[in-house]
Specification:
Metal_Hydrolase; 10 helices; 2 domains; Imidazolonepropionase; 29% helix; Urease, subunit C, domain 1; alpha/beta; 339 residues; TIM Barrel
Length: 339
């Protein structure tokens, strides 16, 4: 058993004082009253604020340096499409004691229609997609991904090329849910968000940006799925990007309808910072998230990783993003992992 004590702790959606973190032998972290922490060497003390490990829920490991991502403050990533054996190898390396990599949760290959996105993209390596033709094939593809260690299933619905028919997409979702695996859909273009929602998908890999989502569909999405933000891929900080404006408007209305957002950047897609993305955080704020809301979007409720803000959490909306960008990841033995 280990104990972490800091000046403040952000956990469970709010900033607290008088709280310590108890790290169980299995790695599970739980906030408890600070007076329970013993005074010996099993207790590590820090200035500033401790919080659950920060998560980027949309990364492509083959296109980035994960060590740099962790040094930049990200404790965990979701790999949403890659060569299964390679991503599994990275995930195994990340679990090793003293690893300099973030924890990796992964979806395995993109599940696609024959000839569909992203098999026609130069950035997608051979083996990073798996074509599906029939309903029976859908079940087999999910079983293969699960056997390879995937805890997510990624499907593409791209209006610019071949797409899975709705019965096949629905069969993927049904097979995944039977194995208790959430389904993430890359939905791009007219009709794709509606198809993902109708099929029962759990997560959209991107906030929709190609069109304004009508209110009835947006309400349906808010009731049954989460959206991963990925707002900064539109313009990478350039002003007045029209796709970004559409995406922020859709996300603002989604949040207003009660929808749940996950912070994710699509890291590997263009000139995005390898670590905490201040621009993404500010765009989430512009879409209506408070600082507590942003942290909720960036963390897991049952975290086994811990992040540290040496200067403390600054809840002022104007200063929040820059302050959060100073976060660093604590190693399993509670020592600071620095770049």
């Amino acid at each position: 058993m280990q104990w972490l004590v800091a000046e403040s702790v952000w956990w469970g959606g709010r900033l607290r004082t008088g709280v310590a973190l108890r790290v169980a032998p299995n790695g599970l972290v739980k906030p408890v009253p600070a007076e329970l922490a013993p005074g010996g060497e099993d207790t590590r003390r820090f200035a500033g604020t401790l919080l659950p490990g920060l998560v980027d829920a949309h990364v492509h490991s083959a296109l980035v340096d994960l060590g740099t991502v962790r040094a930049g403050g990200i404790a965990e990533v979701w790999d949403l499409g890659g060569v299964p054996a390679r991503v599994a190898e990275l995930a195994e390396q990340a679990r090793e004691a003293g690893s300099a990599l973030p924890r990796v949760r992964y979806a395995g290959p993109f599940l696609i229609a024959p000839g569909g996105y992203p098999s026609d993209r130069a950035w997608a390596p051979a083996g990073s997609w798996r074509e599906i033709v029939t309903v029976a094939d859908a079940g087999a593809a999910v079983a293969e991904a699960s056997a390879a260690g995937a805890t997510l299933i990624k499907v593409t619905a791209h209006a610019g090329g071949p797409q899975l028919e709705l019965p096949v997409l629905s069969a993927v979702v049904a097979a995944a849910h039977a194995s208790e695996l959430p389904v993430v859909v890359h939905a791009e273009g007219p009709g794709t968000v509606a198809a993902a929602c109708s099929a029962g998908a759990d997560v959209l890999a991107h906030t929709p940006w190609t069109e304004r989502i009508d209110d009835s569909l947006l309400q349906a999405c808010a009731q049954r799925m989460r959206w991963i933000s990925t707002l900064d891929i539109h313009g990478w900080g350039r002003p007045d990007d029209p796709d970004r404006e559409v995406a922020v408007d859709n996300l603002r209305r989604f949040i207003g309808a009660g929808g749940t957002v996950r912070y994710g950047t699509d890291l590997g897609n263009g000139p995005l910072p390898a670590g905490i993305n201040v621009r993404e955080i500010r765009l989430l704020q512009s879409a209506g998230l408070t600082p507590d809301g942003v942290l909720t979007a960036m963390t897991e409720s049952g975290s086994s990783t811990v992040s540290w803000l040496p200067g403390g959490l600054d809840p002022d909306p104007e200063r929040f993003a820059d302050a959060l960008a100073t976060a660093r990841v604590l190693d399993a033995d509670s020592r600071l992992h620095s770049s």
